[in-house]
Design a protein that fits this description.
Layout lengths: L1 H33 L32 H16 L7 E10 L18 E10 L2 E8 L2 E4 L3
Antiparallel strand pairs: 1-2, 2-3, 3-4
């Protein structure tokens, strides 16, 4: 009788073990399937590793010139052009102006210019009774003699 009990008990243990294995297998299958989208990709792949390098770039933009900076540049340009001292040049007039393209109102033949509004100035200088016209904007000054 003892042998039958052990044999019967053995069968119960095997059935219990098999049931546990089947339940665990089903649980894993359900869990495993729920991790994937219908396309086969993982819904949430977990931790991702960001291996892209970080680069810091510092850009220094040129300072916008003031009206007096533009006048100084125009005076210096004319003094060099005429080979005279800057003190011999007189500022006759300087006014704010909005230029309608990058030529600053002094286009050169055969050149193309960006069609943008550029805030700037007209500057009239004189030396020995002659008036010289300069146009300024976008951090530059151009002589505009016609």
């Amino acid at each position: 009788m003892k042998e039958k009990f052990l044999k019967g008990n053995n069968i119960h243990q095997w059935i219990l073990a098999a049931t546990i294995i089947v339940v665990v297998f089903i649980a894993l299958s359900v869990t495993q399937k729920s991790k994937y989208l219908s396309s086969g990709f993982l819904k949430n792949p977990g931790t991702t590793l960001d291996i892209s390098p970080t680069v810091t770039v510092q850009i220094t933009l040129p300072q916008a010139l003031t009206k007096s900076d533009y006048i100084d540049k125009a005076v210096e340009n004319l003094a060099v052009k005429l080979s005279v001292d800057k003190s011999q040049i007189t500022v006759e007039r300087s006014e704010e102006y909005l230029w309608n393209d990058a030529s600053l109102g002094c286009p050169q033949k055969g050149m193309f210019y960006a069609q943008i509004i550029i805030p700037g100035f007209t500057i009239d200088l004189s030396h020995s009774g002659t008036i010289y016209s300069y146009h300024a904007g976008s951090n530059r000054v151009v002589s505009c003699q016609n």
